[in-house]
């Protein structure tokens, strides 16, 4: 596919990014990926915007990875989109029968007519066709976009957040999961619960910007597909491929931020040395190593960072980095399928954990704990993990966010519940303002 590529040397600062995002809202298909200038070792761009489908793929879970593999191999161009958690049913003999208030398709990817890449002081346009004049006019239009004055007032919606699983039922379900652990059915499982509201009129851009400003994470995403929206402040990478190298960065271990620097340091030290949190992380690292070893060159899987603490505006997180090498001819979709769903959102052993999760959770996960990202024309890719995210179905006026925690033999139900509330804080704060 021929694309016109044009560069502009200009500062892609916060104001320009705001203009770009507001300008994009006229399109039906949008994927905006923003690193928020978070310092990280593995990164290609500061931000990416993909707009306006030239071709697309939308399907349910049945043979979804085969369909994606054929689409990606045939297009041989940039494609952007998402993988829902329920593609587990394509990878293994599993089902998803829980309530679904959002109704996102299981898989959606599109080949954008317009791609805008931001890196330091350079903005690069990749447009399909010979459209040099169109790029110039779009750049001028973006530069002159009037960014709306925002307020924090969402009270006109009177959004009332409800819990799909109430506190006593949550404790009961966690105790059931602990029984499975004590019997040896599983070692760890990520148990999630949904918060939701109905009859909601949501200003999606403003809500995303408010959520992003609270957290400033490295894998923030605004996604629009027809009447469905994802507003994500994700801190977690699922999987990245650059050349023959693949990287996974699972998160397990969370601590709240403190009001003072001294207290904050104390909380970091506590998280670093917490045996439960470390054991959670190490178990998932082992699972990720096992997943990657299925498609990696023998002996190439290694742990680059183990249980390192990263600090964000809302929380401290324990993150590990696992890297491996693949053969040059490895198909990128096969690599993702081998590691999907991500270990940090399932548990160990993976299949047993997913079966137990399905029985105990009340809501179909859908895009929550799935992934959003892109493939480039060379077969490189980068995908995040959809957590710390608000999902919205405009036509159904249904808004939802879910949070979870890892249940292990050392889990105390009250503590797990509190961890969920800490993770839910930013989404709830944005919606209920």
Short description:
This protein is an alpha+beta fold and 433 residues long. It has 11 helices and 20 strands.
Counted by DSSP, the helix tally is 11
Uncertain residue ranges: 151-155
CATH class: Alpha Beta
Number of domains: 1
Q: What is the CATH architecture term? A: 4-Layer Sandwich
Describe the biggest sheet?
20 strands, antiparallel
Provide the helix percentage: 25-40%
Summarize model confidence as the mean pLDDT: 94
CATH topology assignment: Anthranilate synthase
Give me the CATH superfamily: Anthranilate synthase
Residues in β-strands, percent: 25-35%
Measured between the Cα atoms of the first and last residue, the distance is: 46 Å
- Give the radius of gyration: 21 Å
Describe the model.
With 433 residues, the protein is of the alpha+beta class. It has a single domain (3-142, 157-432), classed as Anthranilate synthase (4-Layer Sandwich), CATH 3.60.120. The chain contains 11 helices and 20 strands. It has helices spanning 14-24, 64-75, 88-91, 132-143, 167-183, 204-215, 261-273, 275-293, 332-339, 350-360, 413-432; strands spanning 3-9, 29-34, 47-59, 79-83, 107-119, 122-128, 162-163, 188-197, 219-225, 228-234, 237-242, 245-249, 251-256, 302-311, 315-325, 347-348, 371-375, 381-384, 389-393, 398-407. The chain has a 20-stranded antiparallel sheet that branches. Strand 17 and strand 18 form a beta hairpin. Helix 2 packs antiparallel against helix 9 and helix 6 (204-215) packs across helix 11. The protein is globular and about 65 Å long. The chain starts with a strand and ends with a helix. Mean pLDDT is 94; it is low at 151-155.
